[in-house]
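Suppose a colleague, Dr. K., hands you the sequence of a protein chain of 368 amino acids and asks what its three-dimensional shape might be. Before reaching for any lab equipment, you can write down a predicted structure in token form. Begin with the sequence itself:
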Amino acid sequence: YFPYLSNIENHFYEKEGSNTTIERKEIISYSNLDDYGNPQTILRKYLNKNNVMVSSEVKEVQYDNFVSANRRLLGLLKDEVTTYKMTGEEDVIRRTSYTNNSTTGFRETQIIEPTDEKELTISYIPDAFGNVRQVTQTANGNTPRINTIEYSADGRFPEIETNAEGHIVENQFDPKTGLLIVITDENSLSTQFTYNAFRKLLITTKHDGTQIKNNYGWLRGNGSPNQHPDTPEHGDPVYFIRTRASASPEEITFYDQHSRPVRKVEHGFNNESIYTDFKYFNIEGKNGLLKSKTVPYFAVDGQSAAFESTFDYDFKRRQRIMINPDGSSETIVYLPNKVSKTNFDGQVQVKEFKANGYLDKVTDNSNA
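The predicted structure, expressed as tokens, is then:
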């Protein structure tokens, strides 16, 4: 007998509001093992609180297993075919192929949609430490795009990054913490970062000396005499970050337990508080996605006076519609290598993308 992990069941609980808890499940099943114990079929199912499957992913996988007298390189991805399923929606199939070095196990190429005329090939070249030092993207009919990374002498930190356009970014890291402390951009302008003992960003110093300072604070319970006066009543905020830039009024952002912004507070000329509120979905398939966002409003007017935009998403969690405060809307339709966007007055804009993801063509409402 060969023991192996065949099933994983994850339960997720997400608190939204004072009395509402959403439970959802994720079940991962492994089957059809090859001769080296690698699962060739991986089924991932998503179930709602009623134990009804909402969506699933079926992944069929082939591996490279390189075995010799002095090394065993097992379970290296060779081919993947993933089928995404959801009730009431057409299946979505994605294919990816890989080639691996039989001596080192290093991944040399990745081919996205290898059976499509718009396939994208990504090639990798390693340094002596196994870090990727060069990435080349090649698509049919396109000039290859080459990005390079130079690492520190000990191979720990990416110090110089050069993109396909020849733009150079230089990074400096703290050797003890590994945190980025200085970044010099394409225009040779440097920005410095200072952190506290908990590795949280405290001060950002721009090239002209302008500083942005962050202060972090936990929120106390509602009704506490020390409760922050701008604390939102929605979204169960648990902490806030106070940010102040040189010669500018401070901004405060409140976050929930998932580190999602719940309210952003700015200040007007008379130091009055101006709020922008965010709310999120708590239903299966859309948990955590932005549901609505208000336009900035004065705190003294109350949230009931605020105008808001609302959002909805497709089964792949992509935004498909935005309804503006005035009732007008914008819709987005996703097609292979295309995105069609219709605004509030029926104007249609179609964006077409190359296989490497870069924008290739924009067609406006007049087919121009």
